[in-house]
Amino acid sequence: MFNWIRQVLAVTRFSVLSLPQRKGSSAAAMLGIAGVVAVMVGVLSIAQGVLKTMQSSAADENAIVLRSGSDSEMMSGLGGDDTRIIAEAPGIARNNLGALASPELFVIINIPMRSTGTDANVPLRGVQAQALNVRERFRLVEGRMFEPGLNEVVVGVGAREQFAGLELGSSILVSQEMWPVVGVFEAGGGLAESEIWVDAPVLQSSYRRGNSYQAVYVKLNTADSFDEFKDALTSDPRLNVKPMREADYYTSQSTTVTNLITGLGTLIAFIMGLGAIFGALNTMYTAVSSRTLEIATLRALGFRSGPVVISVLSESLLLAFAGGLIGAGLAWLAFDGFRTATLNWASFSAITFSFDVNAGLLIQGIVFAMLIGLIGGLLPAVRAAGQPVAMALREL
Amino acid sequence: MTTKANGEVLVKVSGVDKVFKRGSEEIHVLGGLDLEIPTGEFLALMGPSGSGKSTLLNLVGGLDRPSEGAVEVGGKRIDQLSDRKLAAWRARHVGLVFQFYNLMPVLSAQKNVELPLLLTRLSAAERKKRAAIALDIVGLSHRAGHYPRQLSGGEQQRTGIARAIVTDPTLLLCDEPTGDLDRKAGDEILDLLQALNREQGKTIIMVTHDVHAAARATRTLHLNKGRLSASPIDQ
Ligand SMILES: Nc1ncnc2c1ncn2[C@@H]1O[C@H](COP(=O)(O)OP(=O)(O)O)[C@@H](O)[C@H]1O
Ligand SMILES: [Mg+2]
User: What are phi and psi of B168, to 5 degrees?
Assistant: First the structure.
């Protein structure tokens, strides 16, 4: 065993020492792998970013109530009476204004994207005072809150960044009137940052919604109060509603888009990966054939074939690792934190998010690179080691 | 077959056939070949190109196995060893000298000579010492730090010989060791091999084309049509 390791080290040393003689093809293989990893990590970071936005929207002790049978706020509808009954349910936390329940409604308006100038579906949400207490991470960063009863809006930071004309002091067109932007808010990186908020009764009358809403957001006493809350609502004969934990709701909202992106990313990575495998294979075959005589000589002297396989493989893995590192690094530099907007397929409204190149993705990229290196190096390694010594010595 | 037996038989090749398959074609290189080499002999192996000299050398050196027959070295059947055992056997018992030297271009002469010692349990210091002794024997101490590309053909071959003798092998096998050298450098190599045979009692088999080189050996055999004979023309 000791001897074997010494052989591995010796043979690997020759590979590494002779690398400079094979600069060109080695660099090509390395950069090929780097490209694959950069694209894969880049695409997957979109899904990670969307997921992160969705997850940071949710609070453990929060729940959302929609009408039965609706999968998103868009599809849902609740009467004013329903929202009052929901607010009386057990398990809901209270403050001096009463139950922490926020009935909200939701319309979509068209606002052009800054980047392309094309119209995007931007959510316009009608809320009342308790909305800010239900969403603990809501924070005004500029201007002031809208006055109840007035045609004024506040915009999320994500929305202001991605969509045109949402600066403080500008106005947006809502049902043929210009409504001024009086404030800008953050919401802990969550989905709300992609939205525009307005007073609920104002929105109801502008859109002739009467006294109807689409969802009730509630803050419960604790996360454990959810079952009690849910049972009370689902067993109430006056109601026909579906209570969900916020985390579950947002996850269900993002699965379509994240699955699509992850699937696409994996497919692209797979196809490009195949190309990179052939690149690595070619490089390693060249490396091995340029070293055929050396390898044969070593084996003639009594070196075993195992160390030869390990040496060729480790060279290939080394190149792949370097390529993976470069690719992951490039993706991180180029994409991490890059903000953009996409359509949330569940609500058909735009959400803004940042590409999220996290540690898990970087590791995934490097592992993928090593896999390419392993496959690319294995065949040449086995060939180099399997050839009869006497035959290999004849190949000059 | 007569042998000038000045020692025990070290190498015994009996009834060896060697057939190569190239596609559907079979090439019969050696047929019913017998050979005995006593310890301490310096044998020259001659014969036309393609007659199977290298093939025979490979069989005796455990680099290849016969299609038929037996190869014994020091009383041990080496043709029946597994690949793994054969590799270990070569490392212990055989020193190989190649026509084109087969040195590692990325290693200095000293490190090239140390190479076979990596297969032993010797310490780094001991490996270094033994390689230095081997380089001294071939007269290359002053070139120890040079790389193969910085050495002349003759110096490279002397490095090759140092690498072959550094493990003190039972058998020294040289395949056309002067084939790529000019007369003067070739003579120096032959002087060296002769000295190793005479002064250190090394058993040497040398394949050569050159009658002049063969004259240095204690015995010359000719390979023709798959068999050995003492004279060049064998019908
Ligand atoms: N591994 C091999 N596969 C096929 N044919 C071989 C192989 N090794 C040698 N031969 C053939 O065997 C014959 C003898 O080769 P070789 O022993 O190298 O001759 P020599 O060394 O006498 O010139 C040649 O015809 C050669 O082409
Ligand atoms: Mg030959």
Answer: 55, 60
